[in-house]
Amino acid sequence: MQNELQINQFSSHLFWDVDSSNINFEKNKTWLIQRVLEYGLINDWMLISEYYGIDDIAQTAILLKHLDKKSVSFISALSGIPKEKFLCCTTSQLTPKYWNL
To answer: How far apart are CA 9 and CA 20, in angstroms?
Structure first.
């Protein structure tokens, strides 16, 4: 949380469904981290990793109920935390998917 972060530094496609002027980097931390992990570009990743730090991002990602497999693998490799520790890998959906995508 060392650098001052501005919302206009992020890729605009991350905020297709929200008013980006209302995003608070502390209140919306979990949402922002998940959005960047799943849809962000490398520049977006660099911004949050400088702002929050890898450890804080990993601890937040561990508690996410939904996170795609690539994002889990990415943050697992960077943080050294096994995939089995992530909530999204240990909880099953009530309605299983028909296709394994």
So the answer is: 11
Residue with tokens 């002027």: 21
What type of residue sits at position 42? I
Alpha helices, H only, the chain: 29-39, 42-52, 54-62, 69-79, 87-90
Q: Model pTM?
A: 0.82
Sign of CA dihedral 99, 18, 60, 76: positive
pLDDT in tens, 35-53: 999 999 999 999 999 999 9
pLDDT 10s digits, 4-31: 788 889 999 999 888 888 889 999 999 9
Calpha distance 29→57 (Å, rounded): 9
